[in-house]
Each structure stands twice: as structure tokens, then as C-alpha cells.
Amino acid sequence: MKSINAIRMGGTDVLPLVEGGKGVAVSSGVTCGHWAAAGGAGTFSAVNADSYDAQGRAIPQIYHGRTRLDRHEELIAYAIDGGVAQAERAYDISGGKGRIHANILWEMGGAERVITGILERTKGIVNGITCGAGMPYRLADIAAKFNVHYYPIVSSGRAFSALWKRAYSKVAHLLGGVVYEDPWLAGGHNGLSNSEDPTRPESPLPRVLALRRIMREFGLGETPIIMAGGVWALEEWEDWIDNPELGPVAFQFGTRPLLTRESPIPQSWKERLLKLKPGDVFLNRFSPTGFYSSAVNNDFIQELRGRNDRQVAYTPEPVGEHLVEYGVGARKRSVYLTAPDFARVREWEDAGHTEALRTPDSTLIFVVPEKAEEIHQDQVACMGCLSQCRFSNWAQEGPAFDNGKKADPRSFCIQKTLQDIAHAASDDQNALEHNLMFAGHNAYRFGSDPYYSNGFIPSVRELFERLLTGK
Asked: Beta-carbon neighbour count of residue 139 at 10 Å?
């Protein structure tokens, strides 16, 4: 195994190990601080992070506003307070070593306001902003305002080229690195484009080489590329290290830091990671963002699959083969189905899925009454956690603050489920089955890697030192 040497990133020398940012309350200031203290780039999630009361207890994010817009303002206030709290914890633990990065999703609700509010209160603490899930053109302007480095997440050279030409070329000196995230293997939201087949993964090397060629055209030959998604052990990436074709490369670890003693996820979640099998992580398109995402295939995902499978097209008037009248809702308003679909609907109703819900695509899905009520309540309680949400039809731009479409019951409230699983009791197995559990596709390797034998869970420092050996 080649030796792992420091590279120049974000204006300083740092070991080329980057902690991947992971959503609501999962990449915390504690893990970030310990990762930075070890000499790498630690990352805390600035996506509705936890803030704390005077006794150090996490403050529950409870919403009191009567309207979505009122609740959206509460959410932004929570997010800023939480981001500041995590940044301060990270800095205290790191002792000024390494790098501290804040991770945001460009498609999260109020993203620009949130990261601006955090940076205003953490000057000299946060060294960089990592951002993906969309095309964050404004990222460079925000970085310039606070003189911090920025790290866009892309899944193709073409995406970076568009960002550079439109915005980043004006703030080239603060581009700390470019994160290439494998859209087939990364956990959480993935950057698959409409031209890419989710069932046909492509090797990352040609794609990263293409990204480097584009970066060199822009004079960015020495700007690091950070490989993310599918990275488990550096011995498997030895050909990438000190490769003159690739130039300076760092490696981002998102999944493995989940299983550390400092990781804030519940103990039951950590134990579940040790039991995953190949294929247990499922690439799906249920997210209210509209992006593909990777998550553990638990009861939560199975219910969404069933919800989408129990789906038929309808017409408002009899036309073509849609001739069978069917009543929808409490008032039994008539729509028209085909005869074969009507027969399927009767089978679903006999099995208890008696509630028909309309989708924006002129289809009906069928669920049990309890699920229909839960979907309705979650849509009503929307707090605008995304810039646009297909589940609730929220959009953060006025005057209507909706996306112009009907709310889509085939999706779910992502804020609710991520908060619930992150803050579940340590022994709550039910929470693991009935909430979204993001994970990278290599998560099954916890169960086969001898490092984790007999249920061993390392500290962040121990994991960091293990990664440096290539294992």
C-alpha cells in the first residue's frame, strides 16, 4: 500500500481523508471535530442540525406556526442555531487542527439563508462549504462573502463545466476541491441524470478522468478531486494515489463514520449496520426531491414500493378503454378505469387497501385507511424543508408557495422520517423498520470486514488511523 501523504486543500496541508456529510443530525460536530483533530477534513451536516438547551440536551424541533410559511421560518431558525452549535462543537474538539466543513443540500428549504446565517456566526470556525443535491450556482458567491472555501458535489464533468462557466470562474481562488460523487454507489441522494441507467453502473475512473481534463482546461490541474461514493478501503484505490493523470485526489468516507463510538445515530442503527447483506441498500426514486436516493430496504421502503405498485391510471370522463365508473373520496366523485384495472382495484380493496388517493399523473394509489390519514396529516404539517417538495407541493418562492402541482402521495415527508430515525431510542427496532435509513451501497461490508468482528465499533480516531493503513 502506498503511503498516504498530505495534499494542499482549502489553503492548507491536510491528509486526503474527508468525512462525508450525512443529513439530518447524523454528521455531527462531535464526529467532525474528531475527524479534523486526526488531520483530515471533518464535515458536519448543516441540514436541520440539532441545537441544545443549557443542560446540553438536543432541542426537539417542534413547529407551532399555523401556515406553512410560518413553519418554514421556524425551520430556518432551528437550522441556523443547529448549524452554529455543531460548528462550535467541532472547533472545540478539533483544537484548530484539520479542516471543518459544513455540508448543505442546495435543494433544502432556505439553503442560502441557512448557510449564510451559520457563517455569519461562525467566522474563523468553518473552513469550507460542501454542497450538492442540485446545481448550486450561488455557492461561490456565498463563499466569497465569508472568505471560506467551497466544495461543489457533482456526478459528471459536464455538471462542473456548467457551474464553472456560469459562476465559479469568478471565485476561482476559493474553490477548495471538487467532490465527484458516484451516482450509483453513494448513500443518500444521488446525482443520476435522465440519460443514465440506474441499473447499469459505470466505472468512476473514466468519469473522474473526464472531470480532470475539464478542470485542467480551466487551469484547475492542482485543485483536488474528492472521490465520494463506494470508497471503503484505500488499498482498493491504490492506482488513484499519486496518479499523474488524475492529479491530486482525496477520498471521502460517508458510510464508515456511521459506525463509530462518537457517531450520534442510535445504538440499534449501529447494530443493524453490522447485519446488512449485499443488496440490502436499495436505489429508489421515492424521495420528495425527485432525485434518486440510496437507502436500506426496510419496511418503510417496502411500504412505499407497495404504495406505488397499487396504482392505476384514470380518466375524468369515459374515453377509450376507460369505461368502468369508480367513486373516489368521501363524495365518491366519478372517475373511469379500464376493466382489468377495476378488477385489480377490487382485489386491493378486499385486502384492506380501501382508500384511493389521486396523484399528479392522473393515477390512483390504494392504501389502508390509517396510511391515508397519515399521508394527509404529514402533508398538512409541511414545514417547507425542501426548496420544492413533490409530496406536499410546497415551494419556497412566493406568492403561492406551491409547485403548481397536486401533492403526490407516492412520496413521504423526509424531514419527519429523518428526524425520527436520528433521534430514536437506542433500543427502538421499530424506528429502524418504519423510517428512511440512508446508507451507501457498501454498507453491507460492515458484516464481512474483519475489522468489525465480534461487533467492534471503533472511535473516530481509531477508524481514521485504520483508513490510513489502506484497510
From this structure: 29
The model carries a pTM of: 0.93
Helix (H, G, I), strand (E, B) or coil at 86: helix
CA contacts within 13 A on the Cβ side of 409: 25
- How far apart, in whole angstroms, are the C-alpha atoms of residue 207 and residue 463? 29
441 in a domain, yes or no?
no
Using CA atoms, how far apart are residues 388 and 107, in angstroms rounded to an integer?
Answer: 7
- Rounded to 10 deg, the angle between the 139-146 and 111-120 helix axes is 10
Cell triple for 221: 490541474
Quote the strand ranges of 352-398, DSSP E. 355-358, 363-367
Q: What is the pLDDT of residue 135?
A: 80
Cite the DSSP H helix spans in 222-284. 267-273
Contacts of 64 (CB under 8 A, 6+ apart): 71, 74
With a pLDDT cut of 90, the percent of the chain lying above it is 84
Looking at beta carbons, which pairs linking 220-224 to residues 24 or more positions away fall under 8 Å?
220/172, 220/175, 220/178, 221/247, 222/8, 222/247, 222/248, 223/175, 223/176, 223/177, 223/178, 223/248, 224/7, 224/8, 224/9, 224/16, 224/176, 224/177, 224/178, 224/248, 224/249, 224/250
pLDDT tens per residue, range 210-257: 999 999 999 999 999 999 999 999 999 999 999 999 999 999 999 999
d(CA 20, CA 27) in angstroms, rounded, equals 8
Per-residue pLDDT of 260-270, as tens digits, reads 999 999 999 99
Residue that is written with C-alpha cell 466569497 in the block:
144
Q: What total of structural domains would you count in the chain?
A: 2
Do 250 and 141 lie in one domain? The reply is yes
Q: Which residue has the higher pLDDT, 407 or 291?
A: 407
Mean pLDDT of the chain: 94
pLDDT, tens digit (0-9, with 9 covering 90-100), for 96-153:
899 999 999 999 999 999 999 999 999 999 999 999 877 888 999 999 999 999 999 9
- Specify the pLDDT at position 134: 75
Task: Check whether residue 248 and residue 316 sit in a common domain.
Answer: no
Domain assignment of residue 416, yes or no: yes
Burial class of 252 by CB neighbour count within 10 A (0 to 12, 13 to 18, 19+): buried
CA–CA gap between residue 86 and residue 81 (Å, rounded)? 9
Query: What pLDDT score was predicted for residue 92?
Result: 97
Question: 140 and 166 in contact (C-beta within 8 Å)?
Answer: no
In a 3-state reduction of DSSP, which class is residue 252? strand
Q: Are residue 153 and residue 14 in the same domain, yes or no?
A: yes
Torsion angle of the four alpha carbons 200, 201, 205, 210, in this order, in degrees rounded to the nearest 10: 60
Which one-letter amino acid corresponds to residue 3?
S
